[in-house]
Design brief:
This protein is of the alpha+beta class. Helices cover 19% and strands 55% of the residues. The longest helix has 15 residues.
Length: 116
């Protein structure tokens, strides 16, 4: 089950979604919406639950949430050599630029997805 919280943060509208299994939080996603664009700041799934569809469920929930609010573009950053790149690509995200030494002196991709 996915639950959500949203609230205003200045000109940004923050959100937090969480996935639960038998009352236990097994996944969390957070970010914000600004100027009609959704930014996903973080997606975390419990290690023992990875590969079970929780991350995908959170991403699909975020897309539905975005569409309900008139948002057609989602973006995020992820490490170039992280397994998450393939995960996001399978969900329709595309790398649009390489961010050199973006975080902890590591290279990242800026990835986007346009919603229809």
């Amino acid at each position: 089950m996915v639950k959500n919280w949203t609230g205003d943060i200045g000109k940004k509208r923050g959100f937090r979604f969480q996935a639960e299994d038998k009352g236990e939080i097994v996944g969390i996603m957070n970010g914000h919406i600004m100027a009609g664009v959704m930014y996903i700041a973080g997606l975390i799934v419990s290690h023992d639950k990875r590969g079970s569809g929780i991350g995908k469920a959170l991403m699909k929930y975020a897309e539905k949430f975005a569409l309900r609010h008139g948002i057609r573009l989602i973006y995020l950053e992820t490490g170039i050599d992280w397994p998450a790149v393939k995960f996001y690509e399978l969900l329709g995200f595309k790398p649009v630029t390489k961010l050199k030494k973006f975080f902890s002196k590591k290279d990242f991709y800026l990835m986007t997805k346009t919603l229809n």
